[in-house]
Amino acid sequence: MSRTPTAPPTPSTTARRTRATGRVTLADVAREAGVSPITVSRALRGERAVAQELCERVQAAATALGYVPDPAARALASSRSSHVAVLIPKLSNTLFVELLDAVQNTLVPAGYQTLIGVTHYDAGEEEAVLRSFLAHRPAGLIVTGSDRSEAANAMIEGSGVPCVRVMEVGEEEGGHSVGFSQRDAGRAITQQLLDSGRSRIAYVAAQLDPRTLERGEGYEAALVQAGLADRVNKVLSAEPSSMALGGALLERVLREAPGTDAIFFCNDDLAQGALLAALRLGIEVPGKLAVAGFNDLPGSDQMVPPLTTVATPRREIGEQAAQMLMKLMRGQPVDTPHLDLGFQVVRRASS
Amino acid sequence: MSRTPTAPPTPSTTARRTRATGRVTLADVAREAGVSPITVSRALRGERAVAQELCERVQAAATALGYVPDPAARALASSRSSHVAVLIPKLSNTLFVELLDAVQNTLVPAGYQTLIGVTHYDAGEEEAVLRSFLAHRPAGLIVTGSDRSEAANAMIEGSGVPCVRVMEVGEEEGGHSVGFSQRDAGRAITQQLLDSGRSRIAYVAAQLDPRTLERGEGYEAALVQAGLADRVNKVLSAEPSSMALGGALLERVLREAPGTDAIFFCNDDLAQGALLAALRLGIEVPGKLAVAGFNDLPGSDQMVPPLTTVATPRREIGEQAAQMLMKLMRGQPVDTPHLDLGFQVVRRASS
DNA sequence: CTGAAAGCGCTTACAG
DNA sequence: CTGAAAGCGCTTACAG
């Protein structure tokens, strides 16, 4: 008995023009199971009725051969890939990363691949990313918010690819969305500051994306309702949000409106930066100034003092959006096309 | 003249078995340009020599028809997709997100799509992700570190897909890598603490991935070389890294080793949490205790006091790894298969 | 419930 | 430098 391992059949000896990829294909499984390739295809996808017994035989053959379907072939034949494209504005905002993580955790186990597109809050970039992604014939699409160009909307519409919008809930926009009311959340945290006795409240925002502006509207509505319309003080910066900017904006507010007794920052990174700046400058929080943020990002509960903020359910949004999208991709009915997951005001020591 | 828009030709009236996808194909472009499909394919990919004049005619036809190549067809025919799979341990660590962002920024403009796989520091998950990704026949692969299972290595090897390892530089591992010496960096920051007069230095680490342990080795080497082998104090926690954990570990160190005059945390999030805890507890930093971190994450420069740390070039790593991978994917030579991008000790007020 | 035929839109491998 | 043929590995659309 030779110790030499059995050599695999060498097709290279046969002069042939075929391109042997060495892959185990559907045809191999079909041969092994003694059925036709279409039956294998159907059995493996669980599509249509395939006799129980055949189904099992196919499964066994597939396992025995270590068959892995080829996504490219599948996509080409069906004009639909297993990709789900997710469009977010930035990767530098923890909020979107957590959203993405939740989407992935839901979609990947179901056999979908996530394609991430970063738009940098830019309509042109969003269109470019969308164009490139749609060429891949994604099975589904998740986009952030509802503020995109006509062209982008037309591309989505025209592609026929199921799409779910996240972070905002817009019933008036049609389609499908999962999120919460940014406006109501802005209003609620402002109300919290009012309720705790503050009356000279500033709203400080950066980046100025639509959601940020909606929070500002909520802020304004709360002040107006409290009869403080003349005290509305919005300090807006188009710069990207950061802790350093939060500190700088804190100083600016106190310089421009020294009487300010509370600041609602549109995002926790600004608020965290402001809290640290206050510490450096010796500004007593909440004694002299109350500080509130938005999103309840990592670290906000660790601040000195801990930061009052609005906890937003981005992980749940990601998960529910993915779930809704899966229904759409499978052609199943969606009972709640616009899912409002709410928010929660978290009062901590900074206010 | 009717105001009704011109109806598109309706193939549905013709009884036929073909599946009209309505897509503009290579064949359409070929017809328009008056050449064969293969010539279009070659002209558009810039592959092989195609007569200048034909090339231009093809480009013009493609533009005129708005031709977008079908990635699935391309992948099926060539057994190679335009996907690059990137494997990272976690999305909750800013470090990896920035790495990813840099990779994307480099790869996307070059026409590649990034597929992100999260392994959660788990060998089994890594294998599963790898198996699923390799079925997509990625053009390239970027993986974090070099600590993976035999099975995973075999899959990568066997796939023949070009692969670049990031964050560590391992010449002894063969293949290709871009990163820096975690050990040297750990040693350098420890040396910095020694140089500034500290001698009871603890190393505090969480997560305990290989890179964290290497930093610890550097820490130990520095102490040993300084003749302080008996002062080595490693406090290790397998929990995931977080600011809250940093605070908790600070307390633990001071309880277990009250004489400690400096702590080197394996990651900035731990160090930031420790700094804030020190503030709460009234522990003077750096007066009573020096604190150093690792990575120079966002916010470290904003802390009170600002955090001494090691700035790591993850964005440059991502960019260079992507660049190296592109060369590999195109079959071009790589002059430096193991690229050490170094690190920088950033001394701030916390030490 | 199962299958034979055709086709998805490209590229490879040969020829010339 | 250009092309006709075949094939990549699946699924769709019909039939039965």
Automatic annotation (TrEMBL), chains A, B:
The keyword DNA-binding applies. Gene3D superfamilies: 3.40.50.2300, lambda repressor-like DNA-binding domains. Pfam families: LacI, Peripla_BP_3. It comes from the Bacteria. GO terms for molecular function: DNA binding. The keyword DNA-binding applies. This is LacI family DNA-binding transcriptional regulator. It comes from Pelomonas candidula. The lineage of its organism: Bacteria, Pseudomonadati, Pseudomonadota, Betaproteobacteria, Burkholderiales.
